[in-house]
């Protein structure tokens, strides 16, 4: 019968546990080295040539927050579009002033609420809808919203300021939901890749 030395036990304030013996550690290290030198066919790790996978995940991280950045950084554009040019500034309606003064707050609400709801929906659909469908569908929706916003740049909205504001909020709700599904799906996909790619995705979002 093997005799266990007291040196193999570690004591803490509320528990006592036994560390692996030196022979056991040596066996584990030898087995690990053997697996690393000759991994089974199912454990073969493909090489990331020219850091292509890293660059792709970094680009996906940038694209995840790019729609929100476009909305919040174009402050002068929103002021110009939401200001009713057909009405002098001295006769401006209180509703128009409210839209201009609290426009960023409206955007924040229109972005946060759909994000939470779509995050929950993505959690429920993760095993029902394939990841490539979720990613491609969200990208198509974001592209369609960008097309609509680009067209509205050339449209005179001075006669329908409130309607334009409603269109912007609706677009923001849809865009925020699609962006959340895209980001959460891609982040879940990185679990099948090495940690380096997860770092690339996080670096792209920041």
Q: How would you sum up this structure, described in words?
A:
By secondary structure, the chain is an all-alpha fold. The protein has two domains: 6-43, no CATH class; 51-205, no CATH class. Helix content is 68%, strand content 3%. The chain contains eight helices and two strands. It has helices at 22-37, 52-73, 75-82, 94-101, 103-125, 131-153, 161-189, 195-205, and strands at residues 9-11, 16-18. It has a two-stranded antiparallel ribbon. Strand 1 (9-11) and strand 2 form a beta hairpin. Helix 2 packs antiparallel against helix 7 (161-189), helix 2 (52-73) packs parallel to helix 8 and helix 6 runs antiparallel to helix 7. The longest helix has 29 residues, at 161-189. It is elongated, with a radius of gyration of 27 Å. 19% of the residues are buried. The model is unreliable at 1-5, 9-13 and 85-90 (pLDDT under 50). It comes from Equus asinus. This is Solute carrier family 29 member 3. It is found in: Membrane. Belongs to the SLC29A/ENT transporter (TC 2.A.57) family. The chain crosses the membrane at residues 54-72, 106-126, 133-152, 164-187.
Question: Strands across the major sheet, in which order?
Answer: 1-2
Largest sheet: 2 strands, antiparallel
Shape: elongated
Low-confidence stretches: 1-5, 9-13, 85-90
Structural classification: mainly alpha
Report the mean per-residue pLDDT as an integer.
77
- Spell out the helices and strands N to C: EEHHHHHHHH
What is the radius of gyration computed over CA atoms, rounded to a whole number of angstroms? 27 Å
Strand content: under 5%
Q: Roughly how many Å apart are the termini?
A: 58 Å
Q: Let me know the number of strands.
A: 2
Number of domains as seen in the coordinates? 2
Family: Belongs to the SLC29A/ENT transporter (TC 2.A.57) family.
Main location: membrane
Protein name: Solute carrier family 29 member 3
Keywords: Membrane, Transmembrane, Transmembrane helix, Transport
């Amino acid at each position: 019968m093997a005799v266990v030395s007291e040196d193999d036990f570690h004591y803490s304030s509320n528990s006592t546990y036994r560390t692996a013996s030196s022979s056991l550690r040596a066996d584990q290290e030898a087995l690990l080295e053997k697996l690393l030198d000759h991994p089974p066919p199912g454990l073969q790790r493909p090489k990331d040539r020219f850091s292509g996978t890293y660059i792709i995940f970094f680009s996906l991280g940038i694209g995840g927050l790019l729609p929100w950045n476009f909305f919040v950084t174009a402050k002068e554009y929103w002021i110009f579009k939401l200001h009713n040019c057909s009405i002098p500034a001295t006769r401006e309606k209180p509703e128009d002033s409210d839209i201009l003064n609290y426009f960023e707050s409206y955007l924040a609400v229109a972005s946060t609420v759909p994000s939470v709801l779509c995050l929950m929906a993505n959690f429920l659909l993760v095993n029902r809808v394939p990841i490539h469908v979720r990613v491609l569908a969200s990208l198509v929706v974001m592209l369609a919203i960008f097309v609509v916003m680009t067209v509205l740049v050339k449209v005179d909205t001075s006669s329908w300021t409130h309607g334009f504001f409603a269109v912007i909020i609706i677009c923001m709700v849809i865009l925020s939901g699609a962006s959340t599904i895209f980001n959460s799906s891609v982040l879940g996909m990185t679990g099948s890749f090495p940690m380096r790619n997860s770092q690339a995705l996080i670096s792209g979002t920041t």
